[in-house]
Amino acid sequence: MSGIAGIVSSNRCLDFELGNINLMTDAMRSRGRNAFKIKNSKFAVFGCASSVFCDDEEKQIPCSLKNDGVEYVICFDGLIYNSSEIRHEIEKRYNCSEKMGDPELVLRSFLRWGAGCLTRLNGIFAFSIWNSKTNELFLARDRFGIKPLYFTVKNGCIIFASQIKGILANKNVDAVIDKTGLCEVLGLGPAQTQGCGTFKGINEIKPAHFALYNKTGLTTHRYWQLESKAFSGDFDECLETTRKLTFDAIGSQIEDKGRNVAFFLSGGVDSSAIVALASRTLGKKLDTFSLKYNRNDEYFTPTEYQPASDDYFIDLVREDCNTNHHVITVDTYDLVEHLTDAVDARDLPGMADVDSSLYFLCKEMGKDFSGAVSGECADEVFGGYPWFHRKEDFDTKVFPWAKNIDLRRNLVSPDALSPDEIEEYIYRKYNESIKETPICFSDTPEEKRRREIAHLNLNWFMYTLGARSERIGMNNGLEIRMPFCDHKLVEYVWNIPWEFKAYKGREKGLLRTVFDRLLPEEVLWRKKSPFPKTHNPEYEEIVKAKVRGIFNDKNSPIHGIINEKFILELMDMPSDYGKPWFGQLMAIPQLYAYIIQFDYWLKKYNIKLSI
Fold first, then answer.
1. Within a domain: residue 84?
2. Domain of residue 99, residue span
3. Given Cys at both, which of 157, 210, 434, 521 links 140, Cβ 3.0 to 4.6 Å?
4. Could you tell me what percentage of the chain is helix, strand and coil, using 3-state DSSP and rounding each to the nearest 5?
5. What is the predicted pLDDT for the residue at 535?
6. Per-residue confidence at 393, pLDDT binned at 50, 70, 90?
């Protein structure tokens, strides 16, 4: 676990940038609390805050080695799941230490295969490699962008960091939001366009991309993408291949790799399946965790989105797998309190109480564990969400998890953006994504649309949830692993026919069948239920009161950006007003919480508007 940072110039001495790299690295200490290291040369300075203890100073990140007389420096954040396989290939050429860690492994892989090493790596990663002879910087990010990597080009230098706060800590970078940034936060948020850093002049290395920075400037390249092709094979063959790929993915990520690993257990099929397989594979008592809201049972009412409480199903798995289970209970006030902590972790407003509840859970888990395995991403990969099934969602020509565009149009003050600007931005981003969907020539119109929905889910919804888990986990010293977004598994499942994926007419029917006989039947075929949320009406009243307080504060930066009149009218309407604001869990109360996060974000980062 680490937060990496660097400043590189193609031709300018950077001795004076040591102060800035210290500020940048220090800003990201939440990603790595144990070690703090700076490395500098004439044209490049690097820093890293790391949670990995290392007795050998030369192996601490950033680390370096010489090849043919040229020094190479790597800053690395992540985990390589096929490290033993890569190490075996590397050892054919280099005399490597058996204790070689992932950073050195990746660096030697780069020296062996260049950018081609990226297609060999299976894991979550973001890293930089600097060539001291050519003064060229190589930046890369994993296929699904689980690990973050931001950059800006300014004053003849490229400045990069794991977090936006790392970039903004550089005294030469200002926190400015223009119309694009506002459209991102208020039009698409909490989703985010891949590659967009929200702040003016700040960008991301896109998932599955690498970049080169040298004296000619910055160039970016894609190294991996899904390929659509006709599927061959019957259901039994499909089932066995899916089972093997799924078991391999989970097996590679439940190994501790020197970390004390825990497991999320929500009682849903995804996390339960991982726990069941891990329990049998590792042959030891697992530590599992679930979240419970104080007094939630008093107010829970089954809905289409949350048809049943999780407790009964969690107990079934806990008993079946004999886990050491921990129930973490959060009350309403803690849920509201951690709204701002979640913003600190993500550097952006997020999924409101969905984020703050995860923050509370990770905070407790991080006290005794440094790694955790999650069932996240299975719904996006295997088609578990309602918009894969319901005709009204399937046919909509906008992001199916955020169909209520009128709400978005009215959310923003006309003094900041016109409603038409918000709507145009939303539709433009949607249509750009649709055009990027890899289509097979033999697809029927329905199959083509199915791919479009799947592509939107992988590149937007899964990207949002993956970022949420990674950032919040890391902020609490917890490296979260998500086996269901293993790229080999995703590549295969992408081309599986829908009638196989929805086997027996059930959402994720194929995935459920993969784990047949591993789980109790009641859990295996339980109707999908999302991440738990509070049903206590007290929550809505608290966030409403806080929003009113913000509006009454004449110094709040939110004035002139949020349409306060509309929000106040909304708060006087019935609490079940309208459709969900974002996804299955974010309705109107979560919109109020998002406004609280937005106000805090503007203040915390001292954001200037350029609109």
1. yes
2. 2-222
3. 210
4. 45, 20, 35
5. 72
6. confident
Residues 209 and 248 in one domain: no
Cα gap 451→231, rounded to integer Å: 13
**SS3 assignment, position 2:** strand
Mention every residue, 6+ apart, whose C-beta is less than 8 A from residue 300.
306, 309, 535
Alpha-carbon gap, residue 453 to 408, rounded angstroms: 21
Spatial contact of 549 and 568, defined as CB atoms under 8 Å apart: no
**CATH classification at residue 120:** 3.60.20.10
Paired tokens of 122: 């299976």
Radius of gyration of the chain (CA): 24
Please report the DSSP string for 263-287 in residue order: EE--SSHHHHHHHHHHHHHH-SPPE
Residue 30 has pLDDT above 50, yes or no: yes
- Give the pLDDT confidence score for residue 306 in this predicted structure: 58
For residues 226-250, average pLDDT: 97
User: And the tokens for 1?
Assistant: 């676990």
Q: What are the tens digits of pLDDT across the range 71-95? A: 999 999 999 999 989 998 888 776 6
The per-residue pLDDT for range 411-450, each reduced to its tens digit, is 999 999 999 999 999 999 999 999 999 999 999 999 999 9
Q: Can you give the CATH number for the domain in which 354 is found?
A: 3.40.50.620
CB atoms within 10 A of CB 346: 26
Q: What average pLDDT does the segment 49-53 reach?
A: 68
Amino acid occupying residue 393: D
Burial 531-559 (b: 16+ CB within 10 A, else e): bbbbbbebbbebbbebbeebbeeeebbbe
Q: Catalogue the E-assigned strands of 445-499.
A: 479-481
